[in-house]
Amino acid sequence: EVQLVESGGGLVQPGGSLRLSCVASGFTFPNYAMRWFRQCPDKAREWVATISPDGPDGLTTNYADSMKGRFTISRDDAEYTSFLQIDSLNSEDTGVYYCNINVYGLNYWGEGTLVTVSS
Length: 119
Description:
Elements: E1 3-7, E2 10-12, E3 18-25, E4 34-39, E5 46-53, E6 59-63, E7 71-76, E8 81-86, E9 95-103, E10 106-109, E11 113-117
Parallel strand pairs: 2-11
Antiparallel strand pairs: 1-3, 3-8, 4-5, 4-9, 5-6, 7-8, 9-10, 9-11
């Protein structure tokens, strides 16, 4: 059974940073691209970033245009974990952050982790 469990969210002051984690199980993690999405209050869920295995030589990362510069996606294949580092947080980053995997054509989501940016 595919499972994704996010953690690392919380209350942070504007300008702060957070590192979100997504621990995966139930599939061969190193073989699959991992994605992060977020859903801000009163907005649709939006794609944040993807990190893809690129064969034996490296990884490919892609970011939504609005996320470039402050968001960094990474992964630890040995730990079956993906990370999303968010810097210079502002109130518009408040929302629930989800990791996502597509395995054999099926989309799987974690429960999400809540990020609240407030002073």
